[in-house]
Amino acid sequence: MTEQHRAKPAAGSDSHQRPGHDAHDRPDDSELPAWLRPTRGEHRLPVTIAVALIIALQLHMPVRLSPPPRVLAPALELSLFTVLSLVNPKRISRETKLVRWAGLALVLVASVATAWSACTLVYELVTGSARTSALELLVNGGSIWLTNIIVFALWYWEFDRGGPAARANARMKYPDFLFSQMTVRNLVHKDWEPGFVDYVYLSFTNATAFSLTDTLPLSRWAKLTMMFQSAISLVTVALVVARAVNIFT
């Protein structure tokens, strides 16, 4: 039998694989940016500082601006955060229903307490029932404004792509926020992924500029939440500053 009549290789054999398409040339997770692949999770320290700051600001708030009893909200927040820290003491990567619900409950408690303080302060300013100095008014208003920034940062952090643990496990592909680092991958280290500090920056710029800066909301809930935060910040700052200027003059 001549060479040209020899049996052809079986279909699917190695001789029929095209160059560059074998198992060794397939892309793996290591070639993806960190925000698209499983990682060990972000460190708990930044969010620990944020929660501690919220509790400190709430305890420093005057009694009339705090939801009664005054220590209830800080105590609940501390208890919930303790549970979260026990489950994920250093890196936030373990996903359980307990972790998810405890995290959302913590942000909800902080949000209710902040909303109470903000609404009470706005009511006092509108009705003129507050008898405080301009300095005290600015301090209280600034504390509420700062707490509001941290609380909304926690909301963004908890819901973007399912929360910090879900992001660490790369469980959801599509992000709710498009950070600038995601669009210039050749200028960013491959291990970069959004952390709590990035969401604080997002919340701060949204509360000060009342508009988008370098981070784009992609989902409807993100757009509505940013809009709501801008409205709260605008009303609080406008009323506090106007009242303080009126007292000074």
Question: Topology, pairings included?
Answer:
Blueprint: E1 42-43, H1 45-60, H2 72-87, E2 91-92, H3 97-127, H4 134-159, H5 164-168, E3 177-178, H6 196-209, E4 216-217, H7 220-248
Antiparallel strand pairs: 1-2, 3-4
Shape: globular
Proportion of β residues? Answer: under 5%
Q: In terms of per-residue confidence, which ranges show pLDDT below 50 for 5 or more consecutive residues? A: 1-27
Oligomeric form of this entry? single chain
Q: How many strands, what sense, and barrel or not for the largest sheet?
A: 2 strands, antiparallel
- Kindly state the number of beta strands: 4
Average the pLDDT over all residues and give the rounded result: 85
Written overview of the protein:
The protein has 249 residues and is mainly alpha-helical. The chain has one domain (37-248). It starts with 41 loop residues before the first strand and ends with a helix. It has a two-stranded antiparallel ribbon with strand order 1-2. The chain has a two-stranded antiparallel ribbon with strand order 3-4. Helices cover 55% and strands 3% of the residues.
Keywords:
mainly alpha, two-stranded antiparallel ribbon
Quick recap of the structure?
With 249 residues, the protein is mainly alpha-helical.
